[in-house]
Structures are given as C-alpha cells and as structure tokens.
Design brief:
The chain is globular and about 60 Å long. It is built from twelve helices and nine strands. Helix 3 runs parallel beside helix 4 and helix 10 packs antiparallel against helix 12 (260-272). The two termini are 34 Å apart. The chain is α+β, with helices and mostly antiparallel strands. The protein has helices at 5-18, 20-23, 31-49, 79-87, 129-132, 139-142, 146-153, 192-195, 231-236, 240-249, 252-257, 260-272, and strands spanning 24-25, 54-57, 60-63, 69-71, 93-99, 106-112, 159-168, 203-213, 220-230.
Length: 274
C-alpha cells in the first residue's frame, strides 16, 4: 500500500456503485470460490498483515484509511456483497477461473474488476483461458492447452507471477474497457489522439498479474494490480531510450497488438530525445 491507496479505493468504490453491471460478476458456479477468497483475504489476511489499517472491532473490521467497516465473517453476505467489499478495500482485481466439468477447461465464472485493461468482463464470462487470449499473438502456439493442464496441477497456495505492460496514450484512467489493444478490423475506429497523442497524456500501464489455486474450491484466481507512470517521468529519469528499445524490439504482430503502429511514429522519437 502506498500514498495513492485512498484515491484509488475511492475510484473503485465509485465504479462499483455506478457501474456494477461491468465491475461485479458472480453466479452459482463460482459462489463457493468467492466466499473462500473473501475469508482468506478480508477475514484472515488483512487484519493480521496490516493491523494499523484493518482493525477488528467485535464482529466487524474497520478500515482506518477509508473509515468503512465490513463483517469479520462471510455469514449473512451474498457473493455479490463479498465482491463489493473486496473491491472497495483491496486495489487488485480478481478473476475466478473454474474448471468446466465437461471438458476440463478453466473458464471465467466471476470477477471484481474495477480497473480492466481493455475489455468488458461480462462479455468474457464462460470463456476459456484460450478463448480469452485468442487475440494475443503467439499465445496459442506457445501455450494453448498446456495452460489448462498446468492449472489442473497447481497446488493450493502456489503463486505464479508475471508482468504485462502497454502504453495508454489518452489519459490515466485505469478503468478501460477498450482502446489499449488493437484487433483486426479496428483501423477506422480510433480517434486521432491514438495516432498523434498529446504527450502529456501518455502513460506506461503495467499490470502485476498473479495466479493462485484456492484450496477448497480448486478455482484459479487471476489477480491483477495495475500501475500508471507518466512517460514524461520516464524520460526525466533517463529511461526513455530503454523503453523505446523495448517497444521497438517487439515482434511485428505483438507490436501491432499493442498499437505501436498508431502512436509509435510520434512517441518513439520523443522518448529518445535528450
């Protein structure tokens, strides 16, 4: 947690209140996993790990930063209420992947997603990992079905982490349902700001992504924590050339997916300026 925690939690709270239909997703196939994660994080972990922020008071816990409270038990809470509490106290987004009893593939069944990086979560419910990543260049060739086999072998409590990044050239709003990735046929759908963005509105968006297997439900939880850094700050710190090198080194298809062919003409030379 850092000094931006309160502002981001306020933004998440507003999104959950005003855009509940796209930030919260649940259903009978995932309700058990939601309760399991709620208990692990909100009841067992946070009050113990951050006792100066999450302070138990009887059968409630008070968040001393926001002033809000929540129950120190899942009893009496619906799965939707549990996701709302998670989303308004924790900065990470959570996506629940559950094994399909028919084909064994892990499919998205529930989520609390206030800071999506370019898609509408409700449209993805029921999709397998392969289907969700179908537009990503090289995913099928490199991973494909092996991901589901790996998920099935994951032991409870085992974590896997990776970093993902993109350039967001039209502001720093972390709630993005489109616009950061390019899909075939979209050439005419983007405004001029993608081709010639205001450099003061350009940000490096980094997602710290982790996977963990829950012990009881055996669901796989995909956890995403998002960070934004101004490209201006990256230049000032002397890392503009390194970022430009990384962008230019991407294979052609991956570069197109990350929209390099739109903003690259203007942004890349600017990053290299002394």
């Amino acid at each position: 947690m850092d000094c931006g925690y309160l502002d981001r939690i306020r933004r998440r709270t507003w999104l959950i209140q005003k855009k509940a239909e796209v930030t919260i997703g649940t259903g009978p196939l995932v309700d058990y996993a939601i309760e399991e994660l709620y208990t692990e994080i909100m009841v067992d972990y946070l009050p113990r790990r951050y006792p100066t922020i999450f302070k138990p008071k009887g059968d409630m816990v008070q968040n001393l930063v926001t002033g809000s409270t929540y129950p120190l038990s899942s009893m009496g809470l619906t799965p939707r209420m549990m996701l709302q509490i998670l989303g308004t106290n924790v900065e990470e987004d959570f996506y629940f992947m559950c094994p399909d009893e028919n084909d064994g593939e892990f499919r998205l069944r529930g989520y609390v997603a206030c800071f999506p990086g370019g898609f509408l979560s409700p449209a993805r419910v029921g999709e397998s990992v392969r289907e969700i990543h179908q537009p990503v260049p090289g995913y099928e060739e490199k991973l494909g079905r092996s991901v589901d086999r790996y998920f099935a072998r994951m032991k409870p409590g085992q974590f896997i982490g990776r970093m993902n990044w993109s350039l967001q050239v039209d502001g720093d709003d972390l709630f993005r349902t489109d616009g950061n990735n390019f899909y075939p046929g979209q050439d005419n759908q983007f405004a001029a700001e993608k081709v010639s963005p205001a450099l003061t509105s350009c940000f490096l968006r980094v997602e710290h992504q982790t996977l963990v297997a829950l012990k009881k439900s055996r669901a796989i939880v995909f956890c995403v924590r998002s960070y934004m850094t101004k490209l201006e700050d990256i230049r000032k710190e002397g890392d503009g050339n390194r970022l430009a090198d990384a962008i230019e080194s991407m294979p052609e298809k991956l570069g197109m997916y990350k929209m390099r062919h739109f903003w690259g003409v203007k942004v890349l030379p600017w990053l290299r300026e002394e």
